[in-house]
């Protein structure tokens, strides 16, 4: 039995490159915010992750992050972070938590540099939006730790399949690709950008072809209805 889809946030922080001291009194101190998303299939009773897609980058930006702001109210750095994340409908509470984690990480860099306020650093903060598909399997069924992907013949059939948007009644959820969570027929930002090709798999649900092919490498079933694809 499938349960409602929920979403949450994860934030992983790391430092890029080695520390070096600024010589001109203007240290290079900034944070690279990378907003990504991925989906996972979780067995409700055991909390076991059955399937998970690779993170897909949505957008990224660089924001200044002066160590002086660890002592003074961090208006500038927080403003840039909040403006970037809130444009993707991320709440203020989540923005506060992410900024706190980055500040704590920057504080560790300051301690490692013997409290030298002019140390250079480049922090990379990956903020992941996690879409979780909850499933409550029948007790008589075993929930395997690893599920096999689709066979070569199934993948080849999906690769050859073409869908022009006509013919057949659309199913619920067909306005959005349930792998990348973007519109199936989104607007192109420029004329040179190719529109993503759409495929309809045997159960009737539609996805971006590139997305469903990536999904089928780890699972031989529809991400929505869980119907397996026959060879």
UniProtKB/TrEMBL annotation:
Q: Which Gene Ontology BP annotations are present? A: protein ubiquitination
Ranges of residues in domain RING-type: 177-226
Cite the PROSITE patterns for this sequence: ZF_RING_2
So which domain of life are we looking at?
Answer: Eukaryota
> Could you tell me which species this protein originates from?
Cucumis sativus
Any single Gene Ontology cellular-component annotation: cytoplasm
A Pfam family (short name) is zf-RING_2
Upper classification of the organism: Eukaryota, Viridiplantae, Streptophyta, Embryophyta, Tracheophyta
Annotated keywords: Metal-binding, Zinc, Zinc-finger
EC supergroup of this enzyme: transferase
Q: What is this protein called?
A: RING-type E3 ubiquitin transferase
Q: Write out the catalysed reaction.
A: S-ubiquitinyl-[E2 ubiquitin-conjugating enzyme]-L-cysteine + [acceptor protein]-L-lysine = [E2 ubiquitin-conjugating enzyme]-L-cysteine + N(6)-ubiquitinyl-[acceptor protein]-L-lysine
């Amino acid at each position: 039995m499938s349960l409602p889809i929920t979403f949450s946030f994860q934030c992983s922080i790391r430092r890029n490159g080695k520390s070096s001291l600024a010589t001109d009194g203007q240290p290079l101190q900034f944070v690279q915010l990378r907003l990504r998303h991925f989906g996972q299939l979780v067995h409700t009773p055991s909390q076991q992750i059955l399937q998970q897609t690779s993170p897909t980058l949505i957008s990224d930006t660089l924001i200044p992050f002066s160590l002086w702001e660890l002592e003074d109210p961090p208006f500038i750095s927080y403003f840039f972070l909040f403006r970037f994340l809130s444009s993707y409908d991320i709440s203020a509470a989540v923005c506060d938590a992410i900024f706190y984690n980055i500040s704590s990480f920057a504080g560790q860099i300051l301690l490692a540099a013997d409290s030298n306020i002019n140390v250079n650093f480049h922090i990379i903060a990956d903020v992941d939006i996690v879409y979780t598909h909850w499933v409550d399997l029948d007790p008589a069924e075993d929930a395997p730790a690893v599920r096999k992907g689709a066979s070569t013949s199934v993948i080849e059939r999906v690769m050859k399949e073409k869908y022009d948007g006509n013919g057949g009644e659309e199913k619920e959820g067909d306005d959005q690709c349930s792998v990348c969570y973007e519109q199936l027929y989104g607007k192109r930002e420029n004329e040179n950008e190719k529109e993503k090709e759409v495929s309809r798999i045997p159960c009737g649900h539609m996805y971006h072809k590139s997305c469903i092919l990536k999904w089928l490498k780890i699972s031989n079933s529809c991400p929505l209805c869980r119907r397996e694809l026959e060879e």
